Prior knowledge:
Number of helices: 5
Low-confidence stretches: 79-106
Strand content: 15-25%
Amino acid sequence: MIPTHHPSDDYLIAYAAGSLEEPLSLVVATHLALCPRCRKEVERLEALGGVLLEDEAAAETATDERALDSVLSRLDAPAPIAPGPIAPGPIATGPIATAPKPRQAAPGDLRVPAPLRDYLGGGLEQLDWKAHKGFDEAELLSDAPGFRTRLMRIKSGTAMPAHTHRGNELTLVLTGGFSDEHGHFLRGDLAEADASVKHQPIADPGEDCICLAVTDAPLRLTGPVGRLLNPFLRI
């Protein structure tokens, strides 16, 4: 099954540069494990980044050579009365950011791609699932500040509460599928949502939908009942 919903270019560029925070990098890496198209695009971006770094290094080398020529040319000139020491320092270069490494490789559920499997320490059934009406959730990366990362298991045919978002949300389908106002999402598909998106995901019938979801702010339920419940919920 080839995914048809992909990360935006901004996420792919940041991933290739190694500048995504760990929760976001985990979602993108898991999508890449299931999506040949995006893997090729990231390889292209990484190659482009390598060329740019080489060009930058060549420019710095040329600058160093010009500085050295200037120093050597002054050796033949008459010495000043009180010459000061010449102490050219090395050109400073910033560290190259790299994508976070998986914590510990571990065998696990083969339905889960390797980048995510390495974070589980076992299969899906060994996770600490917390039950809610119509869905279960298991927290991951609880030590990543500013993000909430979790696996969600939505029972087949179940409609999630209608909601919008106070921030950004990435949702990657691992098993089953769901539909909302913006399309049909199956294994490997990545849904992006922000404050402009209002939707009500509904899991496909016949199989529970398991998703990896990352948010940087709580969701906001819509409708009269939802607005009353918002102060008491952390979804």
